[in-house]
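Review box. Two proteins, two foldings.
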Amino acid sequence: MKRPRIARPPAGAWALALLLALLLPLRAQKDFKQDERAMIEKYKRARVHFLKGAEHLKKGKLEKARKEAAACLEIFPNHADGHWLSAQILYQQGKHEEALKEMETAKSDFAAFAKFYTYSYQEYLDQLRKDREEQEKYINDLAASLSNARTPEARSRAESQVNQAKQALATIDNRLRNPIPPTMDIPAEYHFIHGNILFKLKRFGEARDFYLAAVGADPRHAAAYNNLINIFFASGDVASARKYLQQAEANGVEVHEGLKKAVLEKK
């Protein structure tokens, strides 16, 4: 039976499931104990190396990415994203057994690692509320200058500033409407990379299960759907292949045209 082809993650997909957690500012909570503050500081320093490594990986610079991942984990050994990054580097280097160990470590560390997301998100919301108050005051000051404008040019300039300030306020309000998640589940990209590694190790049944977990976490994960449909089709389970083809398309996911045709035409 012909071995299914494995889909690679789409450009930039490595960052999608965790983008917010990576970009939020991390400031020490007032009620943290001293050791917790120290841990936050280590996390912040490790995060810098992770972000650099992720950028290098995105550009295919594996050795530079590896060095940054190593620096991240040296500072913060339980940095789940650091292990996830390391797993992807090893995967691309063809070191699949080592990649699997890193991926398993990333998942085992994720629950404790995720608490930093919750802490930082709460502080992020607090800062947004302060920013909103300052932005409202700024708009009021601009409105006063608008009423005092004596020339058409000055009025036009003031109106432009007011409009920009109101847009910034609307952006803040939109961010404040996003609720803080009570928990943080393992992201779809973790499951997807885990599945890819197992696929390369020819452990297709386990790979299938992780692709299922990936689409469960992200119903629009195109690469996971394509790999999942591929595995079912290659194993002779055409009914399941068609089921997930229909599910993918219902979620607006594009399935490879050749794969779609093969699944639909199979008798």
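Next protein.
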Amino acid sequence: MERARRRPLDVRNRIADSASSLFAHVAYPLANSLDYPGDPGLFGPDSATWAIIGDAAAFVGGIRALLIQAAHPEVVAGVADHSSYEDDTLGRLSRTSAYVAATAYGAMPEVDAALKRVRRAHRRVKGTSHRGRAYSASDGSGAAWVHNVLVDSFLTAFAVFGPGTLTRERGDLFAREQAALGKILGAPELPTTRDDLAMWIDSHPDIEASPGMEAAVSFLRNPPLPRPAAAPYRILYNAAVTTLPPRVASMLDVRSPPGALAAGRLLVAGLRWSLGSSPSWWLALQRIGADAPPRIHFRRPPPVEGIEEIFTPS
């Protein structure tokens, strides 16, 4: 009987350990977050950002964003020419995840540190795309594409794979909150409603197929992941493809198999059950002394030394 009771917990822990290991290849950006009591960071507990980025649907959103970002020849050229993503897949994935966690949930000193790291990394990303256009990661137009696609992807993934209905008001609030972050990054075009954001991406005049796009999509379709993560990743990838704008999906030449949407929803629900909401969300709530929202559960503590003494799964 005891073994039967423990079996669901064992399954939950195995799923959680496998998923968490994908993002553990850089230092956790909020390790000292409790040193800033009362600091809500950029957004705070009533924001849409904390709820949307803190849900397991963000796994799909991250993959979707990488796919759409690859449709911009200058952006994808910068990644191909200056990134080690093929040799350091999990490192790049972890760095992206750390940036999102720091800007969403960090106290202001942690937000500032994350933005400084991005600016420092971007200074060296310069070159020329296959169509002869100069690119620079510090250029506002490229920053707008990367930022807006990420925002739209988190919104879309939450709307399709989230735990409930995303209202227009909450979607627009998320867009406005993220536009404030985009402004700090120096992005010049920042739609502030969900509909305007989707339209901006779908009608963008600079996107087209490119050699870099083809290489990026091929890599995203089958990245070199550890065996336990490969099959779940494939389900998440196919789920992300189901949500792409038709123009972009055609440009990327990707399609999802039958049942991909249902399989994605089932897997995201399983991740939500095993992982709970983002540990960084829990840490931010602790930092400002706020209670968790109703029906939000935290299963695992953030990777902060000594935090187990105050963390209780909910």
